[in-house]
């Protein structure tokens, strides 16, 4: 497991030009994200797994050869799962992040699981979000079902894509491209009935607003102020 510093610049590429870790391509000098990825892949055991936290930009960047490195990683069938996470999970930064699961000897060869968990979790205070045990169990069970080959896609939440399908998306790994948008339950209330209900509710809100306006004017006048 690893949570490397995001988008680290000046990481010393000039001193590591011929490093054997860059078998999938030389990472750019200005961003170490793909250097971290290649470093960890290089050290993977034959059936090893990585759980890696990265900034979202690594999913789609094409800068300075990063897209080509990502293509080679995908074509090597190393990406087992990608999970898009919501904002405010960290105490140091508020940006959303992505979990990469990189595996040698995947149980589902030629396939990758995409999960969009951006709407999951709950706010524990004004600045910080956390996952409940139910949230964690749902994610874990989804991954387990994928590995067993029993997972069914859930619109807006999870989808399984083949390497060919990822190639058709220009090797971009953003989960939203694969899971789509959650289907909302159809509203079967007739239009005329809905409009009658909504206008009645709105009329009541307007009446309450006028009552509050008069009450505020009265209270202000009582202390010597008058709204012009």
UniProtKB/TrEMBL annotation:
A GO MF term: N-methyltransferase activity
Domain DNA methylase adenine-specific: 1-186
Family annotation (InterPro entries): DNA_methylase_A-5, SAM-dependent_MTases_sf, Type-I_RE_MTase_Subunit
GO-annotated biological processes: methylation
This protein's UniProt keywords: Methyltransferase, Transferase
Superkingdom in the source lineage: Bacteria
Family: Belongs to the N(4)/N(6)-methyltransferase family.
Protein name: N-6 DNA Methylase
Source lineage: Bacteria, Pseudomonadati, Spirochaetota, Spirochaetia, Spirochaetales
């Amino acid at each position: 497991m690893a949570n490397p510093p995001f988008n680290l610049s000046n990481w010393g590429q000039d001193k590591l030009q011929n490093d054997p870790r860059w078998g999938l391509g030389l990472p750019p000098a200005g961003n170490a994200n793909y250097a971290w990825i290649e470093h960890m892949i290089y050290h993977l055991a034959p059936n090893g797994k990585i759980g890696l936290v990265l900034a979202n930009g690594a999913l789609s960047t094409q800068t300075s050869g990063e897209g080509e490195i990502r293509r080679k990683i995908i074509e090597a069938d190393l990406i087992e799962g990608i999970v898009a996470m919501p904002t405010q999970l960290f105490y140091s930064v508020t940006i959303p992040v992505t979990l990469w699961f990189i595996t040698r000897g995947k149980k589902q060869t030629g396939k990758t699981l995409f999960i969009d968990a951006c709407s999951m979790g709950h706010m524990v205070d004004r600045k910080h979000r956390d996952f409940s045990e139910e949230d964690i169990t749902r994610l874990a069970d989804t991954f387990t079902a994928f590995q067993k080959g029993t997972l069914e896609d859930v619109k807006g939440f999870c989808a399984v894509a083949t390497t060919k399908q990822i190639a058709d998306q220009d090797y971009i790994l953003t989960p939203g491209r694969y899971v789509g948008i959650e289907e909302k339950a159809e509203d079967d209330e007739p239009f005329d009935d809905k409009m009658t209900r909504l206008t009645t509710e709105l009329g009541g809100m307007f009446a309450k607003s006028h009552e509050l306006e008069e009450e505020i004017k009265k209270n202000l006048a009582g202390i010597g102020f008058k709204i012009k």
